[in-house]
Structures are given as C-alpha cells and as structure tokens.
Task: structure prediction
Amino acid sequence: MNYPASPSADNQTPPLTDYNLFTTDPALQASVEAEGAGSGAARLAAAGAALGTAAAFEHARLANRHPPILHTFNVRGERIDAIEFHPSWHVLMQGIVTRGYHSEPWTTVNGQAIRGAHVARAAGYLLQAQVECGTLCPTTMTYGAVAAMRRDAWLTSDWVPKLLTHEYDPQDIPIGEKRGALIGMGMTEKQGGSDVRANTTKAVRSSDGSYRISGHKWFFSAPQCDAHLVLAQSERGLSCFFMPRRLPDGSRNGIFIQRLKDKLGNRSNASSEVEFVDAWGHLLGEDGRGIPTILEMGTYTRLDCVTGTAGMMRQAIVQAVHHARHRRAFGLPLIDQPLMQSVLADLAIESEAATLLAMRLARAFDSDADSEIALRRALTSAAKFWVCKRGCELAAEAMEVLGGNGYTEEMPLARMAREMPVNSIWEGSGNIMCLDVLRTFAKSSVSRDAVLHELQLALGLHRNFDAAFERFAAQLAGTPPTEAHARRFAQNFVTLMQGSLLLAAAANPGASSVADAFCATRLSADAGWGAVFGASGAAIDAAMILDRAWSE
Ligand SMILES: Cc1cc2nc3c(=O)[nH]c(=O)nc-3n(C[C@H](O)[C@H](O)[C@H](O)COP(=O)(O)OP(=O)(O)OC[C@H]3O[C@@H](n4cnc5c(N)ncnc54)[C@H](O)[C@@H]3O)c2cc1C
Result:
C-alpha cells in the first residue's frame, strides 16, 4: 500500500532539550554566587545537565500523562490504600532525593550547618521545577517537616536520619526497615483551609502519652509518604501531630484514603482525601500550639512556592525565546518583530526578578541573624503572593508566544500554565499571604527596620527606585494599609525588593539592561503598569535583554 509522503515541517521549531539548565542561566549563576552558595556551582551544573536532557523532559511528560491510581484493596479484599505511580514518577523522585533537594540543608558537619546550603538547594529546586513540579510536593513537604521535627528527641533519633539520606525508597514498610523516607502535611479540612482554627479533627491523649486521632483531611497530598504532620484539636486546642503511615510494629495506622483529587494540574502528584479512625499520633511541639509548629514547616514550603514558580517562569521564557528565534511570520523571525520583542523582554525581566528574589529569600533561611530572620518573616509571604501571581500570567503569555503549539500537551508550557496556579493556592492563598504581610509589619518594627535597611542598599542607583523607596518608606511610617489595600502594599514591597536586587546585580550590560527596564516599568509611578505583559510603553533595551535570557 502507498502512503502519502510525510507533510513537510517547514517553519516548525525544533524541541528545546539537551542543554544545561544552570550554565545557560547567567542570572541564576550570578545570584547563587552573590547569595553565598558559589561553592555549590559545580553540583548545580551537573544537575542542570542531567535535568536538561530530552529523557528528563520525557519522564516529566509521562508522569503527568499517567497520573497516580489509588488501589484501596488488594486482590484478597484487604485494605491497602496503595498508590500506583508511573515509573517516570519514581525516576524523577530518585533524581530529587539523590541530589538531596528533599532535606540536604539540614545535614550538619561537626554540628554546624553547611554554609549557603539553603541557597544551593533552592537553586537546585529551581532547576528541578523547570522539568516537573508534581514531584516537588513531597520534596518540599519533607524539607519543611524537618524544620519542625528536629527539636523532638524521638523523631531526631528514629526518623530524621531516614529523611537525611539521599536514598529514595518508595516501599510501604515500617520506618526501621526503610533506606529513606518522605513526609507530607495535612491541615486543610472541608469546612476550612485558610482558617485552620475551624479544624474539627480530634486528638485524644492515651495513657502512654501518644494520641488517638479521628476526623478527616480534605486535602492530603502525597499520601504515600511515610508520615504526615497533621493538625487536630486536643483538649488544649489545635495541636500538631506526627502521624506515621505504619506503626513501629509494622501494622497500618488508621489512615484511610477515600479518593484522589481530580486536579487541573499537578497531575503526576497524588492529592487525596483521608479519614482518620483512631489513628496513632505523636504530639509535636507544645500542646495547643499546633499552628506555630506547623507554620515553621509552612515557611519553608512557601519559600519553595517562590522558588518553584521562578523555575517554571525561567523554563517558560526560555521556551518562548527559543521558539521566537526559530519561527517566522510575515517574512521575519518572530524575535525580530518589535511587538514580540516587547512581550518577550517583559517576560524575561519578570523571570529574572523572580529568580533573584527567590535566591535572596533563600539566603535569609541560611542565617540565624536577627535581621535575616526578620527579613524572611516579612518577605516570604509577600514574595509567595507576588511571584506566584506573576507566574500564572507569565505562563499564559509565554504559551501564547508558541501559538497553537503552545496549547498542546507536546510542549511543556500547557502543563506549566496549569501548574502555576497551585503554587498560589496551596500553602496560603494570595489574600492570606497579603494579610500575613500586613500583620508582620504591624507587629514587628524589627521586620520594618530589616526591610528598610535592605532596600536602602540600592538607593542612588536608579531614579525610579529612589522615588518608589520614598513612597514605600512614607507608607510604612504613616497609617498602616487597610486589608482592602493589602495586595497593593505587598506588590509595592516585593517589586522594590526585586528592583534593589537587580540593581545590585547589574555588573554587566545584560544585567544592567534588565535592571533598568525593571525600574522603568515596575517602579514607575505610572499606576497603569502591569495590566498585561509587553504594554508598559517604556523604552527598554529588548535585544540586550533577550540575548541575556536565551541566546543560541
Ligand atoms: C493540589 C492541591 C493540593 C493540596 N495539598 C494539601 C496538603 O497536602 N495538605 C493541606 O493541608 N492542604 C492542601 N491543599 C489545600 C490548600 O492548602 C487549601 O486549599 C488552601 O489553603 C485554601 O484553603 P481552602 O481551600 O479551604 O479555601 P478557603 O480558606 O475557603 O479560601 C477561599 C478563598 O478565600 C480567600 N480568603 C480566605 N480568608 C480570607 C480573608 N480573611 N480575606 C480575604 N480573602 C480570604 C483565600 O485566599 C482563597 O482565595 C492542597 C490544595 C491543592 C489545590
């Protein structure tokens, strides 16, 4: 039989794979150095090479094309609550754990934290997010959980060492037999997620000091994890409990997975609804003070929402510029069309600003200095709000640069556009983050001082920055913003921080063009900025900015 010849594929863009995600990103490399993790550059370059392969992108596609399946019972009718993942999920998780992104900063050498460990890990996480994000859910929850677990004697001896290994062991077996473990978190119930005080799940103390927990969680991601930190009401109020999947004797704990969520994105990851029936729990932290205990974990996962989003933004802009360099329309490559340049340059500016902010924020987690603790207290929620919101818009715009191809599942951008909003929703939705920012500034003059000190470092470097700083400082000194204005306040704060970081990093013409363009657009007093990408009207050096973003 004669088949028709293949149609020609003129003017189609070659897939962008097999490149080094780290060494092709000058902003990330400079930022890793500036924020104190330069010694990690070689490992990041190795990770960037491994993650940029066609095979890695294919594993990401497959893990999302074949979402996890819940098996409630085995063939004999026994309850097993097992989750079946596509093999590509395990390949990606193996890579993450081998690189230590689930816990490495908590490893100490002679009792001392490793210098720059949170920054180095954040940079790796940013690379990993460019490929696949569902696998980052158990990754970030484990990273955050260690923060909350490391002061508990039992957990420190029996559990934390299993979290610090670089061995991925997905088996559902007792912790004593495992080579490595992962942790999840359960706060959200049907009647309230943001307002966790509405939680109704009950914890009753047993004579041996452990607790029996009954109730439910409406969102309980990565239920295959070896344990979860959960909130439940004890006699003293909302408390945090460590709830293992299996008890020390090997039997299953009373945690029953009802079903898996059918989600817009984040499809490789299993998010479940669970019922607890007399589940065994170990009190973590002070009885009745569960919110601050679990929020210690939440601060780290919020950092990862920023970093993960910055990673997806970077991949989106790289894919978009790559496409625009190859695709021609109306007789010219898209990259040479002035309006496309405006859009792409605006996206590149946003991506670089997000990268620098994520790395600076990670540095605040590397230090115990009061000023850094105060800075991260103020900046984490604000950055999570702003970067995650910008990520949603950026992904949609970058997808459009690819035209119809961008909207298909063969390209990573459709998946990223679906993935972006979850970083904005979970770990505290946008409004909740902004209200937290207001509370922090209202409560703590230390945070206010730390923020002003940080911003002052960039004074005198750009007229727009100086003017925006004066407006923000006056706002801090005056009547506190109302809740209705919390988003605007957080936006002003974060864009100033981003401006200061870009100005400080403007050591070469490319970086300087990005900093100038950022200040000319985001820090202009013109309130009309930001409606859509590419519409600022400011004079910017688009060619220079795009060369810096992605040249080939
Ligand atoms: C894919 C996915 C996985 C998840 N995994 C987990 C998990 O593993 N563990 C877990 O505990 N949770 C998980 N969540 C739940 C998530 O953290 C919550 O959905 C989120 O915190 C919001 O809570 P909610 O859904 O109850 O919405 P609500 O709290 O009802 O909020 C609805 C909206 O109202 C806004 N809002 C609330 N209060 C105010 C206010 N005072 N002023 C202005 N606006 C307000 C919020 O910002 C939000 O936009 C997951 C969610 C998703 C989508």
Remarks:
- The CA atoms of residues 172 and 192 lie 30 Å apart.
- The pocket of flavin-adenine dinucleotide is lined by residues 184-188, 192-195, 219-221, 263, 266, 271, 422, 425-426, 429-432 (CB under 6 Å).
